[in-house]
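user: can you give me the structure for this one chain? tokens are fine.
assistant: on it. calling the predictor now.
[tool input]
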Amino acid sequence: MRIPTAAITAGSLIGGWQLARSTGIRPLGGAVLAAGGVLAGREWSRRTSPVVTGALVTTYVGAFGLSHPLAKRIGSWPAVLAVSALTAAASYLAADRRG
């Protein structure tokens, strides 16, 4: 059974943030983020073209980067949820719905 990459990306962004926040150990959150990126990236490369895979990886990493300044404006939870939703939507539209 294939796990939708939308769930992987959203789950790893939310889970990584929550793990880093609750433990105070940011590298643990980074490890979750990296694992989610590797898992989703492998699936994207199987399901899509190299160009689409590159765009989705950029979206995923960019979402992580965007969440930080966005959190200063709207708060941590809303920022993480917003970038997770955007990343999940991109993953679904570009890779998951074709499956």
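assistant: here you go. The two ends are 11 Å apart (CA to CA). Residues 5-96 form one domain.
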